[in-house]
Amino acid sequence: MIKKIGIITSGGDSPGMNACIRAVVRTALYNNIEVIGFLKGYEGIIDNNFIELKRESVSGIIQKGGTILKTARSARFMTKEGVQQAANNLKASNIDGLVIIGGDGSFKGAIELSKHIHIPIVGCAGTIDNDLVGTDFTIGYDTAINTVIEAVDKIRDTAESHDRVFVVEVMGRDAGLIALRSAIACGAEALLVPELNYDTTSLILKMKSWRSTKSSKIIIVAEGDQSGGAYKVAEIIKQNCPEFDIRVSVLGHIQRGGNPSCMERVNASIVGYNAVKALMTGHKNEMIGIVNKHVTYTPFEKAVKHIQKLNKDLEELIEVLSS
Ligand code: F6P
Known about the structure:
Helix content is 40%, strand content 18%. The chain is built from eleven helices and eleven strands. Strands 3-2-1-4-5-10-11 form a seven-stranded mixed sheet, with helices on both faces. Strand 7, helix 7 and strand 8 form a beta-alpha-beta unit. Helix 1 packs parallel to helix 9 and helix 5 packs across helix 6. The structure holds 6-O-phosphono-beta-D-fructofuranose.
């Protein structure tokens, strides 16, 4: 019988986390379950820093980026002592379940925590990177790629006017999914992502064959690509193709902010609602996801495996459409 649950947001924030918190809180209260929110992710559990969450606590937040619970990448939680302290505090708080909204680092933390406590833990995939196995879209991804395309569309305007090549770096430490989707949506001429073997040598070859009739060129580079980032790529292009006028734009943390898109708010609400339902029906150590419009439950160990491959058809699509 679940009477009281805890909730945290952890790791990098992402638009839609607030919509998910709201769904968790409202679903729990509807089912007569109390909710406490630990502040700053695992840090809040270690410090026993929490607030009681009522209906009004989550009013007016569905449209807001960031997270009202704050978040952190907790260095203390990486230590044995930190995990033990967190486990002790959770036991003392009398909660019957914990909801973690976060990405792969947060779920790896959940796996450690679950070795020390017996209360069920469930996860809601919250990261702009979309790099978790077991869900089509993580909370934050859709808004982030829309932020990217809005920025790149603007870059395209000035690139056209000056006949320039722009190397645009987007987020994604280990994954190129933001880069891939935004490259398609912006009609980018080239893409560099960690998952593909396409490197700067292939890029230079491609650039040598570019039609001179097309004035602007956009090259999207994922932050985690082996090439070393947008500035390095621009340097290599300058050395090998001096005929191009090159500029660099690193989009950075604007990708993590902003009002969540409609899709984000809806998905985050579905996932948050189902996280509470999952706790009520005995699920534990699983991430709630949405695959082909169906709610799915993926063990944390599998969710963090990073086996999500880039869709080869989409890779070819970029090649064909930018030719
Ligand atoms: O995990 C999401 C993410 O936005 C990555 O794409 C990026 O590499 C990282 O977070 C940046 O993290 P921080 O804000 O801690 O520097």
